[in-house]
CENP-V/GFA domain-containing protein (Kwoniella pini CBS 10737), 170 residues
Amino acid sequence: MPVLLEGSCHCKAVKYTVESNTPVPYQLCQCSICRKAGGYMGSVNIMGNTKTLKITRGENEIKKYIAVKSFDENDQPKERYNSERAFCSECSSMLWCYDDTWPNWIYPYASSIDKPDPLPSLPRGVSFIVLKRDSCPKNLPIPEGAKAYEGYPPGEGIEHWHKTNGVWVD
């Protein structure tokens, strides 16, 4: 049974809703992009159902960024990733990330979710995961009790846990 998540940017210029079958902050991405955009530790994601995303205010305030994978010698983009990050053009709050590699899922940033408050906890027996450790400084801490991966974890994310009836399968 999906849960309706209500989110917004800091200045409230943008508001949105999205349904989630797994409405828990479950993954900390520590890739170079999430650390640059989200802060020193990275970005905490939730998983939503892409087709249910509804922008209820401020669609014209949303700006999207497709991260650069590599630059040329003049710092001009040479190659870009597939993922697209949405943020408020007024206050710069990160809203969600979408990658057409996984078209059914959209990843709202936990920091943008207003309701439910508080967000549900991880189900018993599921570890918070940290991913993309291969692109961050080794002295960057891993939260206590988290399961860390150099790249992406096996499976499809927390929906993989959901599909396996609560058994995290590596």
